[in-house]
Amino acid sequence: MVDLTPKQEILQLIHKGKNLRSQLNNELSSGIHTNEAAMLGEFLVQGFIPHGYKGMTRKIGTIGQKTAKDNIKKRWQNQGDYFLPECESIVRKMSLKTKNLSTSGNAPQLLRKFNRVKKIKNPLPFFDNLITVLQELQSLDLIWNKDIEQELITRQEIKEILYKEKQNLKINSKDIVKNLKRFDSVGETYITNLLKPYPAVLNSILGALERLQDNAPDAERHCISSCRASIESLCMKLGKDNDWKKALCNIFTSRADRRQIKNIWNFLSGKGAHGGHNPSKKEAEYGFRLTSATLEFILHKK
């Protein structure tokens, strides 16, 4: 049996909540408490009840309608009182995957979202609000608490690997890396103006930026893939060859310059689909800045 992800688990709760709400709606739209039933009752009173008994009959009918509706609400509020703890018990096993995630997790932060549901006593808005809370949770980047320890170990390993890779690039792609700090503050406008004559390259790097700002699954890997594609695209355009490495040779006579760019490309390949690696947000951010500096280096050296 395959373990469900937190998102998949919450999605099942959403489906269950919607099913319960649908059953409640069906009950509220049928039976003696509905407007249709009241109209039929009035028709029967007018047509078949003696004049002196009409008022009493209407009063009995109104009481019966209210009692029936109150019984449905009470029964479904009880259903909600069972379903809400079920939701909480599952969410209690999860945490938001934050930068400062600790071994204890942050499940209480997620559970507080249910507080606004607990105040509602009418079952229909109760289920509506509970489903909304579940949908909010389902959109977050969540992790099972049992997996936090391994997540933190993996983060540390990635951090150490990235540090070594950065040191290597400082040595082997020093002319590019030395300008990297400028791209801490350089924004989208600079990149757009730099690459305006090369629309295909611009689309790739802006696509990478869009992925970097996105919280969608696999966004970081797609960001780095777009970064790598932008370097290839610029080389092919300037070097007039569909093989980007041959095009690179046409742009740069210096083997040292070519090696600097290839080192960056190899770094990006190791983080993207080619490397079979799921990069972290930090890796993607560094890859984007590195790519921006590389594109600038190519254009200024050509």
Describe the model.
There is one protein chain. With 302 residues, the chain is mostly helical. The protein has two domains: 140 residues, no CATH class; 129 residues. It is 72% helix and 2% strand. It is built from 14 helices and two strands; from the N terminus they run H-H-H-E-H-H-H-E-H-H-H-H-H-H-H-H. A two-stranded antiparallel ribbon has the order 1-2. The longest helix is centred in the N-terminal third of the chain and has 38 residues. The chain is elongated and about 90 Å long. About 8% of the residues have low confidence.
Task: Pick out its properties.
2% strand; two-stranded antiparallel sheet; 302 residues; 2 domains; 72% helix; mainly alpha
Task: Describe, in short, the structure shown.
By secondary structure, the protein is an all-alpha fold.
